[in-house]
Amino acid sequence: MSSSEIKSPEVLPETPATHDGVSNSTHGKKLGIYFLESDNRRMAFGRGYAVGATPVNIRGKPIPDLAKTGGWIAALFIFGNEMAERMAYFGLSVNMVAFMFYIMHRPFASSSNAVNNFLGISQVSSVLGGFLADAYLGRYWTIAIFATIYLAGLTGITLCASMNIFMPSQDRCDQLSLLLGIRPCVSSFGADQFDERSENYKSHLDRFFNFFYLSVTTGAIVAFTLVVYIQMKHGWGSAFGSLAIAMGMSNMLFFVGTPLYRHRLPGGSPLTRVAQVLVAAFHKRKAPFSSSELIGLYEVPGKRSAIKGSGKIEHTDDFRCLDKAALQLKEDGVDPSPWRLCTVTQVEEVKILIKLVPVPAFTIMLNLILTEYLTLSVQQAYTLNTHLGHLKLPVTCMPVFPGLSIFLILSLYYSVFVPISRRITSHPRGASQLQRVGIGLAFSIFSVAWAAIFERYRRKYAVEHGYEVSFLTPMPNLSAYWLLIQYCLIGIAEVFCVVGLLEFLYEEAPDAMKSIGSAYAALAGGIGCFAASILNSIVQSVTGNPGKRQQSWLSQNINTGRFEYFYCLLTVLSVINFCAFLYSARRYKYRAEHKFGIQEVVTSKQNTPTSRI
Questions:
Q1: Looking at residue 512, what DSSP letter applies?
Q2: For residues 199 and 250, what is the distance between their CA atoms, to the nearest angstrom?
Q3: What's an example GO BP annotation here (predicted)?
Q4: Which percentage of the chain shows pLDDT scores above 90?
Q5: Helix or strand or coil: residue 257?
Q6: Are 132 and 145 in contact (CB under 8 A)?
Q7: Comparing C-alpha atoms, which of 366, 386, 407 is closest to residue 220?
Q8: How far, in whole angstroms, is CA 109 from its chain's centroid?
């Protein structure tokens, strides 16, 4: 069904509507056209820097001089905040593995699942933070509130570890992870600091997300080195205390930058708006698109949309069943209920949320691999020689190497990758967002494939040299630094996939749902963690048989298990996931491509000019 099939009757009530100071008759015209004609805002991404999305100060008032706020100076405070917060997050994660295994004497598989669940819950709970930010609190206050609670939780853990009153249990870890709901808000809030009307906006946004992830990586590197060192030299209380100090510094940096920040007004509950579209579309599911009772597609007149903090969104032909929520019939009356009639912008918001789902869903596999590496590669490292010259690195420091590779790649990204890829793709930024996600997924396949190859060699070496039973005894002639290959490859995958995904979600999400859009990435990460636990349990159940003394692939004794088979399974799943991503990505249309979609249809059908968009 084409756009031309959504028709208004030729004769409508003679009710004048004023748009930009010009009175126009509704005779013989569509409300969809009025929707476009009434909005002459400047378009930045092919959607627009609308009046409803104009930055405000912390009091919700318009900023008289935007030049004195936002920009890279404000972003620096956010980078510092994120770096310190990620140090606390990753420091807590890596210490939990060692704490449960060595102190609480939990089996390695149980410890791995506990950490996976912690990581999963902490990332999934970010959706709550995104919802509160977009609906009620705004991104600034959501970060401020949850970061303060976060600090209180870390302080409590420090006191408990220092006073030996009790040890952290799985339940307490899960409860703590529910407090970490700030992740999608930080990246979105940082991106809010840049002016959409600027000619260099896309370039600034691209660099912002790269530098943002660089700050995340820096915090992780410090966590995997300095925090591990503090734990080994001074104990668990000092290690957890350093994390609380890092989080305190994170909060301080964030609050110091308050006068410089630009804010976006929350647009009300996005879940309510989604529900209204679904209910209205269901109620009018039998209403035809061409009817004498049809007035047209409903949109409010004027420059602003009906959603606070959002500009208007042009109509698209996707998910036509949802368009029925915006069909204005004569029976709707003058003041219809929002549960019976929704605006075009509201309907398009729901369409966009649906269209965004597949892309982060395809990154779940990457997050699953990252989660497995966090635990399984550490288990591998216990059997290998971790000496670097005369320096012996702790096994828990091994995850620092993906961080170092990410740091190096991000540092060289604009000087090496962009110029080379620009010659190949002719893309001004080297590669589009979806292309970068695809490159990341491809490198994740190479990483896990190499992990399978090396694990096969490592196990064979262990068996041949009498280490089959002594699985916690390092083999002096086999270096742990062979793991660096898979670490570096997965680091490259992270750079391209995660950074590209964050930028993609922020640009494509509706104005009033930026945090919800960014939360998709955190949700994919959380699901990846849970999927890792589920996959581990399935593999252990299917491949192991205690009654017949048959070890599972993921046996606690890595030398009698078959980790290489497990890595091969991950490789196959990654290839399937990558092929599905390619199919979906080729069909996806960026929102910028719809910039003049309706206008062109209207012009060709009626040969009447419309106002400048």
A1: G
A2: 32
A3: oligopeptide transport
A4: 15
A5: coil
A6: no
A7: 407
A8: 28
